[in-house]
């Protein structure tokens, strides 16, 4: 990862970005769309964050940024307690704002916004519930991640604590994928993470939905 590419002559700095989804909330269990609604972790969610933090601390991260929503900030706090890292909270890392969809269950969204939901699943640019486009989420989140990654020393590791939808769009943007293909990145389970590593030709996906054995993804975009 640290060598130069014979074709480009560019040398990789060997940095890593760990994108970590927050722990479980009550709305996740209810399959209720959270979006930018500020929902706290359940007791299970706190326990998930503590377990994951012990694993992530072994990576000896150099910096950490987090969404300022309670569920992400509390998750980040567990890793900060173990590592002593300061956490930079940024509203740009919040989950997708989804307007009228927020607070509705999956079944209620399909019942009330069936065609909008179907269009989104087809890969069309949709303002779900009158909210943000996925590309707009990437427009606000990805530059913040890159800004903090650029501050790392060579071989440094940045932990980004955020939300399922925002993490997916950010990964898609950093990998240079067209937005239509972002859905091809499967969702993250609560308190699992993905790892991007720096190669000579840019960022590449090293791990996805890591941290536990495979388990159901609850409330992906939240």
Automatic annotation (TrEMBL):
EC number(s) given by UniProt: 3.1.3.-
CDD domains xrefs: HP_PGM_like
Single GO MF annotation: hydrolase activity
Domain of life where this protein originates: Bacteria
Pfam families: His_Phos_1 (PF00300)
Enzyme class: hydrolase
Keyword Membrane (UniProt): no
Protein name per its UniProtKB record: Histidine phosphatase family protein
Organism expressing this protein natively: Streptomyces albidochromogenes
Lineage, broadest ranks: Bacteria, Bacillati, Actinomycetota, Actinomycetes, Kitasatosporales
């Amino acid at each position: 990862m640290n060598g130069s590419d014979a074709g480009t002559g560019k040398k990789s700095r060997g940095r890593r970005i760990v994108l970590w989804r927050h722990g479980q909330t009550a709305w996740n269990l209810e399959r209720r769309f959270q979006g930018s609604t500020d929902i706290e972790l359940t007791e299970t969610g706190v326990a998930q964050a503590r377990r994951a933090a012990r694993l992530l601390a072994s990576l000896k991260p150099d910096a950490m940024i987090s969404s300022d929503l309670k569920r992400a900030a509390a998750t980040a706090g567990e890793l900060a307690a173990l590592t002593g890292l300061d956490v930079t909270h940024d509203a740009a890392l919040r989950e997708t704002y989804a307007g009228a969809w927020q607070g509705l269950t999956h079944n209620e969204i399909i019942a009330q916004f069936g065609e909008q939901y179907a269009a989104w699943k087809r890969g069309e640019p949709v303002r779900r519930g009158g909210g943000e486009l996925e590309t707009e989420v990437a427009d606000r989140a990805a530059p913040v991640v890159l800004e903090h990654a650029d501050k790392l020393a060579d071989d440094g590791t940045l932990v980004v604590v955020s939300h399922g939808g925002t993490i997916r769009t950010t990964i898609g943007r950093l990998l240079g994928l067209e937005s239509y293909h972002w859905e091809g990145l499967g969702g993250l389970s609560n308190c699992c993470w993905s790892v991007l590593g720096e190669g000579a030709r840019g960022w590449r996906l090293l791990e996805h939905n890591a941290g536990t054995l495979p388990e159901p993804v609850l409330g992906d975009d939240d």
